[in-house]
Amino acid sequence: VPQAQPRAEELSELYRELSQQPGLSTACLGPDLTTQYGGKYCTLYTEWSQRDLARAENIKFCRQYLIFHDGASIVYSGPAGTCSEIKDELLSRESPSGTLKAVLRKVPGKEKEKEKQFLEVWDQNRKVKSIDLTALDKHGSVYDDDQFGCLAWSHSETHLLYVAEKKRPKAESFFQSKVPEQSTSDEDMRHPKKEDAPIKGEQFVYHEDWGETLSTRSVPVLCVLDIEGNSISVLEGIPEHLSPGQAFWSPEDTGVVFVGWWHNPFRLGLRHCTNRRSALFYVDLTGARCELLSEDTRAVWSPRLSPDGCRIVYLENDVLGPHQQCSRLRMYDWYTKHTSTVLEAVPRQEWGAFPGIYCGTLPGMCWAADSRRILLDTAQRSLQDVFVVDTATGTTTSLTDDSPQGSWSVLTIDRDLLVARFSTPSCPPVLKVAVLPSAGHEAQTQWICLQDAAPVPGISWGIRPLQPPPEQQHPQYRDLDFDAIMMRPSEGPTAQKPPLVVMPHGGPHTVFTAGWMLYPAALCRAGFAVLLVNYRGSLGFGQDSVASLPGNVGTQDVRDVQFCVERVLQEETLDASRVALVGGSHGGFLACHLIGQFPDTYRACVVRNPVVNIASMVTTTDIPDWCLTETGLPYKPDALPDPAQWTEMLNKSPIRYVDRVRAPVLLMLGEDDRRVPPKQGLEYYRALKARGVPTRLLWYPGNNHALAGVEAEADGFMNMALWLLKHLQ
Predict the structure, then answer these.
(1) Basic and acidic residues composition bias: which ranges (predicted)?
(2) Model confidence at 1, in pLDDT bands (50, 70, 90)?
């Protein structure tokens, strides 16, 4: 490696510097206050996350800002005080009036006690309630995830709604010895309370769960805390075949609206899978009556109630098929019981038209004050933009067309004050605020930067559209194109002719948007050009692009990446003799395919939890439907693949080309990965070792599919960078 290349110490210092860039996670606007001079202002509460390498954990901190406005524009805005770390908060939510705040907190147990969960209520001066949920023992752990979890105030601010694991009966061995307690009477010994009596033979019963990142979620229940009465009740009336979540109070607090996911005949992985059968329901608090509000043959999520309590918008997909798709926006009218489609799926992206909805969720607060317009962010090819949607007419307007290009996300909107996050591949997240203009004038939105971030020097980037050659066109979906984001060093010894690192995304139905990404930025600063490929099948290009890939994995996506690599090597000043691959999950699948199908192009390869053999993955993953769908085969819960289908899965897998691999391969595997179990990577490792290909395997305990633990992420970057430097000499 040339002396100018960063050595391990320089790389670790580079990573330390860039990994300290904080991420902006949530924002909440307080109530409007009036100054003695008649001006209006409010506080903006924000939460950020940051990697702490010394503590090897992600920390959360909060910062507050003041926003002075006149209802039409922002007069002044700025920070109020400094940051402070948030410890042990799992969930928090301000009440509708802004005068109270609910906090779910974890508290370490004393000595041998287990960790406890407390639900706290704060007013503006003090903590007024602290309720030990663990001691009350009405349910298991409260869910703090964004799949099922919620913490919702009733409109009257007298009750709190949340989701928790259903309480399981105690179980004991058939041979359990009984040790009577001193305080136990003879009567209690002869007749223990039925609900407390442990059940024999139930100790080792298997409990299904919801898969990757949701392995402690099995049977969710909706729970209500009566704040004044300090009492908790578990809502009844929800059908047993449903798992409820994403709940909120109905208008007038008469009941609860929730999303219910079917778990018959068994649970499949739910994280990043917006294609699981689910529907919108209402359960009455008094009569325990459960009512279906949406169609029950679709997949729905992210229900949001309008400020006037009249309408609920939600997202909808077809069941099964690709795990992420172009979604429909639906609206349910609470009083007429009528459901309408506000926005349909978009077949093809066209500039100047709405690109379609590809967001994982709607913002928690997404309605404008008029209860007619909603705000959302969505991928538009390789950008992410903010749109306002008129739910009455279905018209859409971009709020970021005339703003800098990159990745925009809506954090919240309240009383038409809009808070967003913006970043680019060379600029970490910044905080932006605006006042939403009146209907018809939204394009005039004026964004103001509230918390800036210095752009990282030495990185230039651009988006390159690509049209596959005629012989690689899809017969049914012709003329589809795709993008790649190109990042390259703009200073330093390699800037003139850098080596190239090719990174296809995972999914496969996800997308790289032009936002801040730690690994690509750090690689670019280390002297590599980085090519982020949004091959056909990526989100943001229309539903036709998504639909073109199932049945063609291992060919269409592989050829798209290779075509893109060959094109940039021809047209840009890059070192074509030093090209490497880095990919995770389906990106790892593509990387392993490429080093086998095009061994002359690539000199090194780094893969994180890669799919290597679809045939051997189908029986071990939490998403067996993915294996069949992407292979182009129908999925049914009771179907067993026949020999021809096993062969098809194997033929589309990178393991088929392992005999042709020459590039040294570094594998990184998460021990707790439920999505692409580490046996996949081990299978490839052994096949490479048996063929004499230089290979190294890193095994990360306590890490799942994302390998997002602070220690694993940092160690993974260092090993990846050093592997690339070593083998791209």
Answers:
(1) 187-196
(2) very low
Backbone angles phi, psi at 681, to 5 degrees: -65, -40
Per DSSP, the three-state class of 9 is helix
Give the pLDDT band of residue 3 (cuts 50, 70, 90). Answer: very low
Residue 607 near residue 673, CB atoms below 8 Å: no
**Encoded tokens for 723:** 């592997």
- Please enumerate in sequence order all residues whose Cβ is within 8 A of that of 219, keeping only pairs 6 or more positions apart, or say none: 165, 166, 207, 243
What mean pLDDT value characterizes the chain? Answer: 95
Residues 33 and 31: their CA atoms lie apart, in Å, by: 6
Residue 585 designated active-site? yes
Q: CA triplet 351, 343, 378: central angle to 5 degrees?
A: 50
The span from the CA of 587 to the CA of 522, in Å, is: 19
Superfamily of domain 459-613+653-728: Alpha/Beta hydrolase fold, catalytic domain (3.40.50.1820)
Please state the domain extents for the chain: 459-613+653-728
Is 705 a catalytic site residue?
yes
- The average pLDDT across 586-600 equals 98
| Residue pair 326/543 in contact by the 8 Å Cβ criterion | yes
Q: Which residues of 661-685 are buried (b: 16+ CB within 10 A; e: fewer)?
A: bebbbbbbbbebbbbbbbebbebbb
What DSSP string runs through 333-381? ETTT--EEEEEPPPSS--TTS---B--SS--SS-B-TTSSEEEEEEEET
Catalytic residue among 505, 509, 705, 727: 705
Distance (Å) of CA 566 to CA 503, 572, 583: 14, 10, 18
Looking at the DSSP bridge assignments, the partners of residue 242 are 262
In the chain, the largest separation of any two C-alpha atoms, in whole Å, equals 88
Q: How far apart are CA 144 and CA 147, in angstroms?
A: 9
Q: What is the pLDDT of residues 453-472, one digit of tens each?
A: 999 999 999 999 999 999 99
**Residue type at 655 in one-letter notation:** I
Buried b or exposed e, range 597-627, using 16+ CB within 10 angstroms: bbeebbbbbbbbbbbbbbbbbbeebbbbbbb
Distance, in Å, from the CA atom of 400 to the CA atom of 410, rounded to the nearest integer, reads 11
The arrangement of strands across the sheet holding 101-107 comes to 89-94, 101-107, 116-122, 127-132
Catalytic residue of the set 585, 616, 625, 727: 585
Nearest to 555 by CA among 621, 648, 447, 672: 648
CB atoms within 10 A of CB 178: 6
Evaluate whether 563 touches 484 at the Cβ level (below 8 Å).
Answer: no
Contacts of 431 (CB under 8 A, 6+ apart): 24, 27, 46, 65, 419, 420, 421, 449, 450, 451
The two structure tokens encoding residue 213: 């990142």
Residue 500 near residue 594, CB atoms below 8 Å: no
Q: Tell me, yes or no, if 673 is annotated catalytic.
A: yes
Rounded mean pLDDT, 362-375: 98
Alpha-helical regions (H) of 121-203? 133-136, 186-190
Helix (H) or strand (E) holding 589: helix 586-597
